[in-house]
Amino acid sequence: MSQVKSLKVTLVKSLIGTKKNHRLSAHGLGLRKVNQSVVVEDTPSNRGMINTINYLVKLEG
C-alpha cells in the first residue's frame, strides 16, 4: 500500500492587501488566521495553491 504524503503549511503573513485569488488559495488550504498551521495531502492541486502563496506561508515536509 502506498502512504499518502502530507505537508504542514503555516500562514506567517496576513492576507490583508493580497490579491483575491491568493486569499482564495489560502482559504482553500484551510488557512484563516496568522500563525495557523494545517496538514494537507501532497497533491498537485495543493502544491499549486502553496506555490501561488509561497510568500505568505512556511512549508514543512
Q: How would you portray this structure in words?
A:
- With 61 residues, this protein is α+β, with helices and mostly antiparallel strands.
- Helices cover 31% and strands 25% of the residues.
- It is built from two helices and three strands; from the N terminus they run βαβαβ.
- It has a three-stranded antiparallel β-sheet with strand order 2-1-3, with no helix packed on it.
- Helix 1 (20-29) packs across helix 2 (44-52).
- The longest helix has 10 residues, at 20-29.
- It is globular, with a radius of gyration of 11 Å.
- The two termini are 21 Å apart.
- The relative contact order is 0.34.
Features:
25% strand, alpha+beta, 2 helices, 3-stranded antiparallel β-sheet, 61 residues, single chain
Number of helices: 2
What is the general shape? globular
What does the radius of gyration come to? 11 Å
Low-confidence stretches: none
- The total count of strands amounts to 3
Quote the beta fraction: 15-25%
Give the structural class: alpha+beta
Q: Sheet with the most strands?
A: 3 strands, antiparallel
List the strand order in the largest sheet. 2-1-3
Give the termini distance in whole angstroms.
21 Å
Task: Report helical residue fraction.
Answer: 25-40%
H/E element sequence: EHEHE
Report the average pLDDT across residues.
95
